Amino acid sequence: MKKRIISGVSLAIAGMIGSIPGVAQEFRCNVEVNSQQIEGTNKTVFEQLQEAMNSYMNETKFSPATFAPNEKIECKLFLTVAEYNDDRIKGDLQVQLSRPVYNTNYTTTLFNFRDSKVEFDYREGDPLVFNENTEEGNLTAIMDYYAYLLLGIDFDSFSPNGGQQFFDRAASIVQQMQSSGETGWRTFEDTKNRAAVLSSYTDANTSGIRKLLYDYHRKGLDEMVTSTDKGRATITESLGELKKIYDNAPMSVALSIFRDSKLDELVNLYSESPQTEREGVYELLQPIFPTESERLNKIRKPDNKR
After folding, report:
1. 8 Å CB contact between 247 and 284
2. pTM for this structure?
């Protein structure tokens, strides 16, 4: 498995590389555009939008990191169009990121989030151009932001704080877009916009989620192939970071992102674990996710343990 480490190379090199053919891009990204809610409109614009977004995410070189074809980062962008008027598209964007588990055929979800503040201008045939120094429009700004955010999360899962330079790049995009007038970027606009999501990984009160990313995945899941009990014990210990986040910032979007990414996986992980371990995990998670009683009860009492 490739270790996500960049040393001695500036992220700015990515701007010179751009989308040069033959350079190993980072993502294997599946982009879908759903326009079923829009009636009486030529669907060609949405088909071209989907093709343009797919090309942008899969052909742009966002970093100096080298990726072999089998090492590319797997992600999904699912855009649901709710409104389309005068070349203005409004909707929501579901963003998912996954990662392989060492020496298995299993992939684990690192990030699962629905961005409900997506608005941008797009005309049929518009080119989407990557520019390291400035954003060409709100659509490319959104895709660049998520590209760097996902790179940061992925790299963090392989080495402690390994994705810092990508979080820094995402922060510069947020800062640049603060004055754009576009929705979804402004700090304190709401608790689940793009500024808030980034802050959940970078603010001192909640940045323990990054330690959890590494401990849970590299020291936990990746080690379970050789020692199931040891790897799972590390995962159990890593969940303590959630309690710290909850105590410091109970409304942090970091908690809902973890819930949507990991609760179902935890049900499976603890299905064969000792009762005391399952009870401990339940007691930790229940106050944090009080509305998830059904799934949490499956951790405490799996079907095969009833």
Report:
1. no
2. 0.92
